[in-house]
Amino acid sequence: MGQLYNIYCDESCHLEHDGESAMTIGGIWCPQSKKDEIFHRIREIKEGHGLSKNFEIKWNKVSPGQLDFYMDIVNYFFDNSDLHFRVLVIPNKQELKHDLFSQTHDDFYYKMYFNMLKTLFEPGCGYNIYIDIKDTRGQRKVEKLHEVLCNNHYDFDRNLIRKVQQVRSEEVELVALADLLIGALSYIHRGKNTSEAKLKLIERIKVRSGYNLMASTLYRENKFNIFVWRSGYGK
Description:
alpha/beta; 6 helices; 6-stranded mixed β-sheet
């Protein structure tokens, strides 16, 4: 058996009628064997900024007073070769025509989750997927996602995708970090610009990634992978 990886996923503005334009789904992955070391280092960075080790990293909490901390967290992500990120962006949900493809918004949601994750899987490796709890439908959603992922990869024995599990972002450092990076992509793709601190953090991500964050990266980009979905792509 090859390497075992953990993938920590989150989403932003994924509901059909939430009044937001762009929808984002993304995840951070790392070797399972490196998880404890990474969690420990993130907590050290928190304490180095005078924060509790239980302080929750969250895009909505980015503010001028905590900007230096969030800059260091972003730098840590880019400096650590064991950490990788992929995000799928649907720029405008209002343009979706689910009825033309005989699908519901939930069907589309699972297809997009699959499209976000499918490039990460390598034959011979194993994957544990952790998803932030969002609502009371969470358990049904993770069971359905596990089924969709396994069926699409002919992984009927679940050797490739070992588990899909709900977790709380405030308790799992890399789900919280996924929230931060996904939040940055969601902010810029929704055309938001009211927070100077958030714009500065986005600029740091642009500089460190080498991308403008508005367009898809190369398919095999391994550190900071962006896929901007268009309606002409797989339905």
